[in-house]
Design a protein that fits this description.
single chain; alpha/beta; Rossmann fold; 3-stranded antiparallel β-sheet; 9 strands; binds adenosine monophosphate
Length: about 280
């Protein structure tokens, strides 16, 4: 696995791969890798000849009161995992190589980012779309893989690529969960044992909502109420939002239809967790 920390070097490698007629796949991450990330690498490997993973903890997507400073890091462990997973190149730009002196350009995707996580994290998606745009320009992937765990992020990137005529194929990978249902996340490491246990209310509430849908429930308010009542049984979990939205536009819908997403965010102690599920009407 070859490592690059400068966009020009990364681009040279990718241009060379393209000259050889190879398809390049990209999996962007912030590191502290788990099986969720590695499942995306696996998807990228199936869809491309050469796979690039990036690791960059992007300051632009963290708010002033968020966890940028304490975000977990494990460079040696991440390298070993990516190498074992068959990644061909690791792009790990330094902060200065990503945002040089005088940096002032951002990309913002309007409607898709207006609700859900965009409400509590007003600058978050602008940071995400900007850094992903820069990763795309450095890696020049033919295909890029993002997890459905961050569904609003996936929808934002899809919209950006379409709006900017990028011609990059965007693929979503299913949420990978711990055996007890908790969605894998680098942030789970922050949870105390009691919080880790309480956090199961989130996946449990989504399962109950799916179950209600299977029994014929289509009313969004009823489904959200079901989520609220399950989460309310855990005093350590404070629900920030639960919403039923169209999975492409991220706008609220009154009833479950085709391509409907139930998404939630919650505070568990000092840790903010998100989870979601697609809903299908019976
Ligand atoms: P992050 O390192 O948290 O920025 O995540 C990098 C990529 O991995 C994003 O596309 C996430 O959606 C994806 N990801 C994170 N957790 C999971 C998971 N449990 N299952 C699938 N994909 C995930």
């Amino acid at each position: 696995m070859i490592t690059f920390d400068h966009p020009a070097d990364m681009r040279n490698w990718s241009d060379d791969a393209h000259r050889q007629g190879k398809r390049v796949g990209l999996v962007p991450t912030m590191g502290y890798l788990h099986q969720g990330h590695l499942s995306l690498v696996e998807i990228a490997r199936r869809r491309a000849d050469l796979t690039v993973a990036s690791i960059f903890v992007n300051p632009m997507q963290f708010g002033p009161a968020e966890d940028l400073e304490r975000y977990p890091r494990d460079e040696a462990g991440d390298r070993a995992k990516l190498e074992a997973a068959g990644v061909d190149a690791l792009y790990m730009p330094t902060g200065a190589n990503m945002y040089g002196p005088g940096y002032q350009t951002t990309i913002s995707v309007a409607e898709v980012t207006s609700g859900l996580c965009g409400e509590a994290r007003p600058i978050h998606f602008q940071g995400v779309s900007t850094v992903v745009a820069k990763l795309f320009n450095a890696v020049r992937p033919d295909v890029a893989v993002f997890g459905e765990k961050d569904y609003q992020q996936l929808a934002t990137i899809r919209r950006m690529v379409r709006d900017l005529d990028w011609g990059i194929e965007i693929v979503g990978g299913p949420i990978v969960r711990e055996p007890d249902g908790l969605a894998m996340s680098s942030r789970n490491v922050y949870l105390s044992p009691a919080e880790r246990e309480a956090a199961l209310a989130l996946s449990r509430s989504l399962e109950q909502a799916r179950c209600a849908c299977r029994s014929g429930e289509v009313d969004s308010d009823v489904i959200v109420e079901r989520v609220r009542s399950v989460v309310a049984t855990e005093p350590l979990v404070q629900l920030e939002y639960a919403a039923v939205v169209d999975a492409e536009s991220m706008q609220p819908v009154d009833r479950v239809g085709a391509n409907t997403l139930l998404a939630l965010a919650a505070q568990v102690g000092t840790t903010r967790l998100i989870d979601n599920t697609l809903l299908a009407a019976a």
